[in-house]
Amino acid sequence: MTRNLSISNRLREVLLNGRWIANTNYKDQIISISWEQSIQKIASLNTIAALTFHINYYLAGLSKVFDGGPLDIQDKFSFDLAPIESKADWDKLVNEFISNAEKFSNQVEQLSDEKFDEGFVDEKYGTYLRNIEGVIEHSYYHLGQISLIKKMLLEN
After folding, report:
1. So where are the chain's domains?
2. Number of CB atoms found within 10 A of residue 21's CB
3. What is the pLDDT of residue 22?
4. For a Cys-Cys bond, which of 8, 57, 72, 77 suits 108, CB 3.0-4.6 Å?
């Protein structure tokens, strides 16, 4: 298997349809809760909606770079979620997340082997590979949080 297929499959595992590492994925976790559950706070933890927005923010921002645009995302804005006040608001975020996850996975699948080793936007960001692997690791980190928060919500 070529590097682009291997890495795009890893993205799809954590974001859309995998079960190998975590026995779940974002899509499974977020499509199976109500909008009310998505915004329910437990102590000082982030909400599931906030974590979904957070990962989606990075997927959309990196995807824009893959399309030839600028890297204009900033960490300080990565939790600036608009209020979720209805099922329609939650469905919109879920659908955007799934769409961006599919798009980004497809973009990675289309990369040439050489592109993975090229610098990403600026030397300080490392290579394309480093950034894609960062998305995977970051996504698993927050997927674990979502899974635990969901479990806490369902126990109440």
Report:
1. 3-155
2. 13
3. 63
4. 8
| Residue 28 contacts residue 14 (beta carbons within 8 Å) | no
Alpha helices in the chain (DSSP H): 3-12, 26-31, 35-39, 48-66, 87-110, 128-155
- How far apart, in whole angstroms, are the C-alpha atoms of residue 121 and residue 129? 12
**Position 119 confidence tier, pLDDT thresholds 50, 70, 90:** very high
Distance CA 81, CA 51 (A): 9
In sequence order, what DSSP letters do the residues of 73-100 get, joined into one string? --GGGTT-PPP--SHHHHHHHHHHHHHH
Average pLDDT over residues 81-100: 98
30, 67 Cβ separation under 8 angstroms: no
Which DSSP category does 122 fall into?
Answer: S
Contact 49, 38 (CB under 8 A): yes
**Residue 85 phi, psi (nearest 5):** -120, 5
